[in-house]
Amino acid sequence: MAQPDRSLWLKGPGNICKCKPSTKEFHPWRLVLLGPPGVGKGTQAAMLSEKLGACHLSTGDIFRMAKTISPDQRSKALQEAITYMDKGLLVPDTIVIALVKERSDCLKCECGFILDGFPRTIEQAQALQSFLDELNVQLDGVVNYQMDIEKIIARLSGRRVCINCKSVYHIVTMPTKVEGICDKCGGQLVLRDDDKPEAIRVRMETYNRETAPLIDFYKNSGLLLNVDANGTPQEVLERTLRGLQMLKA
Ligand code: AP5
Fold first, then answer.
1. How far apart are CA 204 and CA 50, in angstroms?
2. H helices of 2-105, where?
3. Which pLDDT value is given to residue 237?
4. Hey, whose CA ends up nearest to atom 17 of ligand 1?
5. In angstroms, what is the span from residue 202 Cα to ligand 1's centroid?
């Protein structure tokens, strides 16, 4: 099977993803990942993408990608988004929904998708539902990762991200072979601006106020799968895959 190509999602419309299932038996998984900042959604999305063949679509990655282009080449909406993000605040719904809408080709991909960080408000969840209805596509599950807040803060403060390929590490639980250098591309590792203590506090408050209500929203649709996010990434992945099989059955 051709591998899913995230470049269409990250760069925006104009690139064509060539992902095609090679067998008729292939089941395209269409998932949403929920959970507080730092619980491990991005880590699991990357592993699930490899295992299930579905594309990892992160709204946070779109904004981080925008930070790598020079400010005079950013659209006004992206510039505004970056200002919100660095403070740990949610980017306004109008901006996020417009960015997802212009990338909605990714939602009808035959290989499926794993949405990481979208939706994050009830308004975004309603917008996603209307995009999917228009495309005649249905969600298979909404995975809600759960963990105590103290452990999440430890994950966030130790996280390091490659400025080049965006790979994610942790100084204790997922260290690189050479300190400060990405194993995959040799790029420099940095602390994200929104992983500084003040921004972490704001992000947690924002999550409780704006995003946690989505748990009830999806519970009512029968799609919700709660997954304990404690343990190694591999253990969490296996727990998720078992849960997804049960949800499918
Ligand atoms: P986004 O990029 O979506 O960030 P987030 O939801 O805050 O989630 P994180 O990326 O911080 O954490 P994660 O759960 O992915 O954890 P990770 O796998 O990295 O959004 C960033 C910002 O963009 C938002 O604050 C907002 O401003 C804006 N934004 C994005 N989408 C938006 C939207 N829809 N609406 C409005 N605004 C939006 O893991 C964390 C660390 O733990 C890593 O170091 C990792 O190596 C480590 N780790 C992971 N799993 C394990 C494990 N099992 N054991 C040990 N260590 C682990």
1. 29
2. 7-11, 41-52, 59-67, 76-87, 93-101
3. 98
4. 40
5. 14
Output phi, psi for 197, to 5 deg.
Answer: -50, -45
**pLDDT digit string, tens, across residues 145-185:** 999 988 998 889 999 999 888 889 999 989 999 999 999 99
pLDDT of residue 15: 67
Least Cα distance to 31 among 156, 132, 180 occurs for: 132
Tokens 């939706």 map to which residue? 119
Give the model confidence (pLDDT) of 8-21 as tens digits: 788 777 766 778 88
Distance (Å) of CA 10 to CA 15, 103, 105, 162: 10, 9, 12, 16
- Catalytic residue (choose from 64, 103, 160, 203): 203
Annotation marks residue 76 as catalytic: no
Query: Does 218 score more than 70 pLDDT?
Result: yes
Could you tell me the pTM of the whole model? 0.92
Using DSSP, state whether 195 is helix, strand or coil.
helix
Structure-token pair, residue 6: 């995230």
For the cut 80, the answer to whether the pLDDT of residue 7 exceeds it is no
Distance 24 CA to ligand 1 centre (A): 34
Residues with CB under 6 A from ligand 1: 35, 37-43, 58-60, 63, 84-85, 88-91, 96, 117-118, 120, 124, 155-156, 158-159, 168-170, 173-174, 194, 203, 231-233, 236
